[in-house]
Amino acid sequence: MMKNIPFAHKDAYESAIKNASVQSENLTNGGRKALNQSNFLGYVPSESDNFGLSWSMEGYINDWGLYQMSKKQHKLAEAKYYKNRALTYAKMFDGNGQQAADKWFKGKKQDGSWTTDPQNFDPTSWSRDYTETDAYNMAVSVPQDGNGLANLYGGPAGLTQKIDQIVNTPGDFTTDGGVIHEMREQREVKLGQYGHSNQPAHDILYMYAFSGQPWKAQKYTRDILKRLYVGSDFGQGYVGDEDNGEQSAWYILSALGIYPQNLASNQFVLGSPLFKEAKVQLPHGRSLTVKAPNNSDKNVYVNSVYLNGRRIDKTYLDYKQIMRGGVLRFNMSSRPSTRRGTQQWQKPASLTQGRKAPQVKTDAFDKGQVVGSDQDYKKLVDNDSNTVTTVKNNSTLDVKLDRARRIDMLTLSNSTKDTKFKNVKIYGSRDGKHWRPVDQVRNVKFTYDKSTKPYLIRKTFVPYQHYRLKFEGGSGQLGEVELLGNMD
């Protein structure tokens, strides 16, 4: 869709939205784990799944794709909502360490506490939180926001330190259960904790593009291309899983010196090509010839890049540039170009700009004091849409915050699709007594049972300390209500 390739865009979009917003009783047929909680907590709690961290991190990447698709489909509310969900990876980051090497993505419980305390945390453990991997291989799994990730680690230098730690820490592993083949294969890669044998690791080295030393991606990807794809020479095939052709795709793209580190961005990070010349046939009779005439086992570093004679100072190309074809020339060297790609404008796209940590909008009902007119109103704000209450005509739900704050979005989660309201009105107040209209959502209805829908709130109102929702012209069963804004 982002590349404007003809197919049923609308159907694909609606399917993706359903997958991310409607509870599924059979994940084999689609859907995500524990949406009744993860949509509101911002993560899959360990009580719902022992590998909740992996479910969560993969979900954030998918939400980034939905953000891009929503913009393409001109769905502004969904775009803003899924952009926020894509940033929620920051909730899983334990940044209490003194340096980047001591900071990790970890699983969480329902109450927001970590699944392991600092004294017992073992980043080499494959026993919980991380699916078929460990904390090292999930430490930079944020392709949608490399700059925001770097900021969490203290800046580009901190991200460099973290990836260096992954490739330099011995590839030992621990487990409370049985040993699976991925554990042994990671060790056999012989690149520290980096597990090229399995999919969670495949973006790690290209995340150097957001670090202070992007040239290190060239060093390590060339090492992998040289050592880990020679199994046919002695009858052993690949070093690990070839699920859906991913090992092969990584090789082909990396050997060409271009890699789709962030798929929905249409950008390809520039790496280090393996061959002196390679030609790719493109549609409409075009072709892209990749040339690196002084390439060798020693000359693995890129000094400069030219596309059709024009110097490329950024660390990436976009899809349109590639599809126009021509000649992509890499000038190689035995020494790294330590300045190339280190400026912010040279780096690939990120959700977070500048030097601040990712800003995640959270629920006002989690922040403040809540009062409702219905007897079971607390079920609407308990971060579990499986606890349901019947919302009647003219029901209200109030929240008092610590101070005046702006809200940006309303989300409603139904139990049954026959839930309908003519209007859901939003009011604001400074004192909790005198109310002024903020906005309203008209003709609220749902396509599916157990689904979550976002709605935008207009930006022009004055922030209030008190907010009220009023449901008019209908009734139905709701499982959760949110008012999202900057609550920190």
Mind explaining what this structure looks like?
There is one protein chain. The chain is built from eleven helices and 20 strands. A hairpin with a 2-residue loop joins strand 7 and strand 8 (310-311). The protein is of the alpha+beta class and 488 residues long. The chain starts with 8 loop residues before the first helix and ends with a strand. The protein folds into two domains: 9-346, GH92 mannosidase fold, CATH 3.30.2080; 362-485, Jelly Rolls (Sandwich), CATH 2.60.120. The protein has a five-stranded mixed sheet with strand order 5-6-10-7-8. Strands 11, 13, 15, 18 and 20 form a five-stranded antiparallel sheet that branches. A five-stranded antiparallel sheet has the order 12-14-19-16-17. The model has no long low-confidence stretch (mean pLDDT 95). The longest helix has 21 residues, at 52-72. It has helices at 9-21, 35-41, 52-72, 76-87, 146-152, 156-168, 181-189, 216-227, 246-256, 319-324, 364-367; strands at 93-94, 104-105, 258-262, 267-270, 277-281, 287-291, 301-307, 310-311, 316-318, 326-333, 362-363, 369-372, 389-391, 396-405, 407-414, 421-429, 436-444, 452-456, 464-472, 476-485. Residues 332-356 are annotated as: Disordered. GO terms for molecular function: peptide-N4-(N-acetyl-beta-glucosaminyl)asparagine amidase activity. It comes from Ligilactobacillus acidipiscis.
